[in-house]
Design brief:
The complex is a heterodimer of chains A (167) and B (100).
Chain A (H helix, E strand, L loop, with lengths): L2 H22 L3 H21 L3 H25 L6 H4 L4 H22 L15 H11 L1 H22 L6
Chain B lengths: L3 H21 L3 H25 L4 H31 L13
The chains are: A mainly alpha (167), B mainly alpha (100).
Chain lengths: 167, 100
């Protein structure tokens, strides 16, 4: 195992434990803070596989913006705390489905990429320059489409959430 | 120098945690958080394959997924706040207006 693989093992363990804590925490604010840890470990994974720009964007957008939105959402809706009010009665069915999904995915990964003959890959070092060049050379139309989608979502969110002050 | 199956296992664990969260949680904001977990699992896969196949396109699609996730959270939280204003509760089990 290389040094990067040890680092990834630590990052993945922290991320996995906090991901499970996100969906089992009894306090909604604690769940949001565990989500921060999970998102940071995903960002660290991006950096470890050489995706520099994607890693920093992950940390900026998710930790910096999306989690703040979640915390505002939790503040504006007085959420009750406690397992019985947070989880529904048939959560064991959820455990069963999630374990089934996980087992299926592990089986598929083992079929497609057997761990025994998996070799460490040389990470593609994609810096901001190469990502930007590829984005504006090959993906201009999807980029414009996603910009338009974000604008539409922004206007839609404002229209939905504003109070009607009686016209 | 990471072996690809380890990254894929990490992402499938994130995805399964997200599936459990969507199925088991009653609070609408927590359901949105679990959806974010699943989107992140997809992003991990996209970036890992992009790096191992030496093609930067996967990372660009991961960036697009992040943008879509941001839009989704914005709209989702607006709907949740509207729901809370109208029903004084964000329990998804109680929101069954469209159920026949």
């Amino acid at each position: 195992m290389s040094a990067q693989e040890y680092a990834f093992a630590v990052v993945a363990a922290v991320g996995a434990i906090s991901a499970i804590a996100v969906v089992t925490a009894r306090n909604v604010v604690h769940a949001a803070l565990y989500l921060v840890v999970t998102l940071l470990s995903v960002g660290a994974t991006f950096l470890l596989v050489g995706a520099e720009f994607a890693g920093w964007v992950q940390i900026l957008i998710y930790v910096g913006a999306i989690v703040i939105l979640f915390l505002f959402g939790l503040m504006l809706t007085k959420a009750p705390i406690g397992r019985d009010t947070l989880d529904n009665q048939r959560r064991w069915l959820g455990v069963l489905v999630a374990l089934g999904v996980f087992a299926g995915l592990v089986f598929l990964i083992d079929q497609a990429f057997p761990l025994a003959d998996a070799r460490p890959f040389e990470a593609l070092r994609a810096n901001t320059g190469s990502v930007g060049a590829a984005m504006f050379r090959d993906f201009v139309l999807p980029f414009e489409a996603i910009s338009f989608l974000l604008l539409a979502a922004l206007i839609g969110a404002i229209v939905l959430a504003r109070k009607d002050e009686g016209t | 120098m990471i072996r690809l199956p380890f990254v894929l296992l990490f992402s499938s664990l994130l995805f399964s945690a997200g599936v459990y969260g969507v199925l088991a949680r009653r609070n609408a904001v927590m359901v949105l958080m679990a959806i974010e977990l699943m989107l992140n699992a997809v992003n991990v896969n996209l970036v890992a394959f992009s790096s191992s196949l030496r093609d930067v396109g996967g990372q660009i699609f991961a960036l697009f997924v992040i943008a879509v996730a941001a839009a989704e959270v914005g709209i989702g939280l607006a709907i949740v706040i509207l729901l809370f204003r109208n029903r004084a509760s964000i329990n998804v089990d109680e929101v069954n207006l469209l159920r026949w």
